[in-house]
Amino acid sequence: MILQIRRSPYNTRAPRACTLEPYPVRKKEARVSALERREHWLAKPRLPGLVFLFLLLGMACAGAPQTDATTSASRAASADATSSATKSPGPHRAITSVLYDAAQGPALRLCLLAAGLGILYRAWQFRRLTRALHRQPFARSAASRAARVPSAREVRRAATSHPVMKTASFSFHLFLFLVPLLLPAHNLILHRSLHVSLPSIPSPIADWLTMVVVALGAFFLARRILVPRVRVLSTAYDYAVLLLVLGPFVTGLMAYHHVSSSPWLMIAHVASADLLLLAVPFTKLGHMPFLIFSRFFVSGEYAWRQGRRAWGGSA
Amino acid sequence: MEAGQTGVGRQRVNGSTASAIVMHRIGRVLQRNRQMITLSLQACAHCALCAESCFKYVHSGRDPRFSPSYKAINTIGKIFRKKGRLSESEYQAVSSLAWESCALCMRCYCPVGISIPSLIACARSVCRERGIFPR
């Protein structure tokens, strides 16, 4: 005799169906559900990260070294210009060259290390704040479906229904990651120093995409100033972070179009990129790792994948 | 504040002892949820995309004070930044946000995945320790 107990839509710890069978059935069930879980290859908490890492490594190994001089953009060229400029005597130029090399070498490595460690710390914090969910993840009950509660998809559609905002946000975040990673000049530098590189896109396209990123950043800035519900939340910190994100893009664009021949432009470009990397785990840019943790690993109505964790760990 | 209001006990205690006990209890609530609060408030991008998913916001003529992020930041964010040492009027403002502006219906959708109801529930616990709750 099986007694079905109706589940609350908010209670992820569902009451076990009462059976008259002895207890050890549960172990078998668990094994079956673990096998079933394999179907959703992203449902396993550690898998997406590993897949992403392998993809990145595969791209790095398979990507043909893009050493073609015609596709290399002016960033590397201006880097060469600064380093060749050091040959001519003059204390001013020597200082810029030293600063550029420091920002591109040790400072960049330090910032990357700090950002990596910071993200690891955030991951540890997230792990402490959540607990593993051994029961089946969130599912809408028949009762809540019958009660015409708006579904997660409906709520999500309502929340991000504005087509302009949806497109702007998605393309901004996409190009924010893709342009620096796939830029020929960056890959050239990467190839020279580490003998690995990612596949790269043609420079003119990268140029256009950078302009798109800057334009969308200006759009977000305008939204922050003009829309009341965003304005009440905005502080100087929000504007500073937005400008910090746009910094490397604006300076890179200026360098590409030879707006100024000053070596300080390239120093500003590299230094602002260092700062940006450093800021990821410690400022509100931390929503980047947080989004991956919460939307992929936490089970819930709004989750993007069937996570196996729930909030409320030992913290 | 009266000793009876703070929920300290039936015996009469003087005002300073009572407020010290209340502060201790508020501190305990904040300490228990410290990591959740810091991680959530840090990850909030202040994008206000959660506003459209709040029925209070939509049905109040799109008053920005009803957007879920505003409620979370101005209740638990304020309390946490000042370690619970808010003035009486500030506590009144916080409690009206936490108890009246939010129904804790858990329908708010944060694109980043912050659990906004947990934050507001935490602010309610602090208010409860302070003795401010609907009767």
Can you characterise this structure?
The complex is a heterodimer of chains A (315) and B (135). In chain A, strands 1-2 form a two-stranded antiparallel ribbon. Chain A is mostly helical and 315 residues long. Chain A has one domain (44-306): Fumarate Reductase Cytochrome B subunit, CATH 1.20.950. In chain A, α4 (91-104) runs parallel beside α5 (106-129). Chain A has 14 helices and two strands, in the order αααααβαααααααααβ. Chain A starts with 24 loop residues before the first helix and ends with a strand. Chain A is globular. Chain B has one domain (13-130). Residues 1-10 of chain B have low confidence and may be disordered. With 135 residues, chain B is mainly α. Classes of the chains: A mainly alpha (315), B mainly alpha (135). The A-B interface holds A 10, 122, 125-126, 128-129, 150, 152, 155-156, 158-161, 165, 169, 227-234, 238, 283-284, 286-287, 290-291, 293-295, 298, 302-303, 311, 315 and B 33-36, 39, 42-53, 57, 62, 64-65, 67, 69-70, 73, 106-107, 109, 111-115, 118.
Per-chain topology:
The complex is a heterodimer of chains A (315) and B (135).
Chain A: H1 25-37, H2 47-62, H3 74-85, H4 91-104, H5 106-129, E1 130-132, H6 142-146, H7 152-159, H8 163-182, H9 184-194, H10 203-226, H11 228-231, H12 236-256, H13 263-279, H14 287-297, E2 309-311
Antiparallel strand pairs in A: 1-2
Chain B: H1 3-6, H2 15-32, H3 34-43, H4 55-58, H5 68-81, H6 88-100, H7 116-130
Helix pairs in contact in B: 2-7, 5-6, 5-7, 6-7
